């Protein structure tokens, strides 16, 4: 199993990306291909103990920045770390690709180079979220800003298949993110999607509001990428602020600090469950290849977990699960 990683993508590339790669290589039986500027990669690897680790380098001399228009960037920068990495998957030289770079460019590159599964018009990004009983899966989390109803139905099917075939949740419950539970709530596309989902064989439970999206009511939360990305980043920001407030409050008075020491393991457990880094990245479902898009601000821990997310998807046979499921439809 070989996984290619975009070393040049993300706010903290290449240092934090390489640190995450080294951590993943040390703890797991997986061969990693570092894609990017060879000189920068070799210089950074020299600061780590990498002797004997299953690491190799593929040169890519261009970088797609976060502010570049995706479609234009992949056309003009064919030797970018994103394009080179995706093409490794296309040629079968890597089983998966991981990037914390421009998410739109990663999606566009995967769409053009790998193509989509039968019955899928556009890939969608799926993100895990913790719930009281396990995890829920939000799709799309940011690569399709505008989605007509037919796309949202496809996302719902992919999310349902992922939860059933990969995570082993039978007959997963599918909810449509909206501004109210009533079928009449939401914009025109949300209302039309609601009607379309009711006609499918999915276990559609109707609309769900944002405050109920991650409490376990639905296993799959379906939305467009614009709304989904805002929801993801809002939840991350609120979670980080809550943890920050707890730490500030516990350190504000001596008796609070004493109580905090006793409760420290519980707080650490909560912080870990709410930490976006523990979930690594989102799976780009719908392409003919395994692609994981990590957060742009990913540090070494997040990159390591993004690599493990890709490995887990390969171990669980996500592509065959999606292909077989779509044949039944």
Write the layout of secondary structure elements.
Blueprint lengths: L1 E5 L8 H13 L3 E6 L1 H8 L9 E5 L10 H7 L4 H10 L5 E4 L3 H11 L10 E8 L2 E6 L9 H18 L6 E5 L10 H11 L4 E6 L11 E3 L2 H26 L3 H21 L6 E5 L4 E5 L5 H16 L2 H11 L1
Parallel strand pairs: 1-2, 1-4, 2-3, 4-11, 6-9, 7-8, 7-9
Antiparallel strand pairs: 5-6, 5-10, 10-11
Helix pairs in contact: 1-10, 3-5, 4-5, 6-7, 6-11, 8-9
Q: What would you note in describing this structure?
A:
With 329 residues, this protein is an alpha/beta fold. The protein has 2 domains: 1-117 and 286-316, Isopropylmalate Dehydrogenase, CATH 3.40.718; 121-277, Isopropylmalate Dehydrogenase. Helix content is 46%, strand content 18%. The chain is built from 11 helices and 11 strands. The chain has helices at 15-27, 38-45, 70-76, 81-90, 103-113, 149-166, 188-198, 225-250, 254-274, 300-315, 318-328; strands at residues 2-6, 31-36, 55-59, 96-99, 124-131, 134-139, 173-177, 203-208, 220-222, 281-285, 290-294. It has an 11-stranded mixed sheet with strand order 3-2-1-4-11-10-5-6-9-7-8, with helices on both faces. Strand 5 and strand 6 form a beta hairpin. The longest helix has 26 residues, at 225-250. The radius of gyration is 20 Å and the shape is globular.
Order of helices and strands: EHEHEHHEHEEHEHEEHHEEHH
Backbone structural class: alpha/beta
Task: Count the domains.
Answer: 2
Sheet with the most strands: spatial strand order: 3-2-1-4-11-10-5-6-9-7-8
Q: How large is the radius of gyration?
A: 20 Å
- Specify the helix fraction band: 40-55%
Q: Which stretches are poorly predicted, pLDDT < 50 over at least 5 residues? A: none
User: Any idea what the shape is?
Assistant: globular
Major sheet details: 11 strands, mixed
Q: So what's the CATH class of the largest domain? A: Alpha Beta
Percentage of residues in strands? 15-25%
Assign the CATH superfamily of the largest domain. Answer: Isopropylmalate Dehydrogenase
CATH topology name of the largest domain: Isopropylmalate Dehydrogenase
CATH architecture of the largest domain: 3-Layer(aba) Sandwich
Termini separation comes to 30 Å
How many beta strands in the DSSP annotation?
11
* Total DSSP helices: 11
Average predicted confidence as pLDDT:
90
């Amino acid at each position: 199993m070989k996984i290619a990683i975009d070393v040049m993508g993300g706010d903290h590339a290449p240092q934090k990306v390489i640190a995450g790669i080294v951590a993943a290589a040390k703890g797991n039986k997986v061969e990693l291909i570092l894609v990017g500027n060879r000189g920068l990669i070799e210089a950074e690897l020299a600061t780590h103990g990498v002797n004997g680790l299953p690491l190799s380098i593929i040169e890519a001399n261009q970088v797609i920045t976060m502010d570049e228009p995706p479609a234009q960037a992949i056309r003009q920068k064919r030797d970018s770390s994103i394009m080179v990495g995706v093409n490794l998957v296309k040629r079968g030289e890597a089983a998966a690709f991981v990037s914390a770079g421009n998410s739109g460019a990663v999606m566009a590159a995967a769409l053009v180079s790998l193509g989509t599964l039968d019955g899928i018009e556009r890939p969608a990004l799926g993100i895990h979220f913790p719930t009281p009983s396990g995890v829920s899966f939000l799709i799309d989390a940011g690569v399709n800003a505008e989605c007509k109803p037919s796309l949202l139905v496809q996302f719902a099917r992919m999310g349902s298949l992922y939860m059933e075939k990969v995570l082993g949740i039978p007959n997963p419950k599918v909810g449509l993110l909206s501004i109210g539970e009533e079928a009449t709530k939401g914009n025109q596309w949300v209302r039309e999607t609601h009607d379309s989902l009711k006609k499918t064989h999915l276990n559609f439970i109707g609309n769900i509001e944002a405050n109920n999206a991650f409490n376990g009511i639905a296993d799959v939360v379906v939305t467009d990428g614009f709304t989904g990305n805002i929801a993801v980043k809002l939840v991350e920001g609120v979670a980080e602020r809550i943890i920050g407030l707890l730490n500030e409050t516990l350190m504000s008075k001596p008796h609070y600090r004493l109580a905090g020491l006793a409760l420290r393991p519980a707080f650490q457990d909560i912080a870990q469950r709410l930490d976006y880094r523990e979930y690594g990245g989102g799976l780009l479902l719908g392409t003919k290849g395994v692609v994981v898009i990590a957060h742009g601000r990913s540090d070494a821990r997040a990159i390591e977990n993004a690599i493990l997310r890709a490995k887990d998807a390969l171990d669980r046979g996500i592509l065959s699960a999606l292909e077989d499921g779509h044949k039944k439809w």
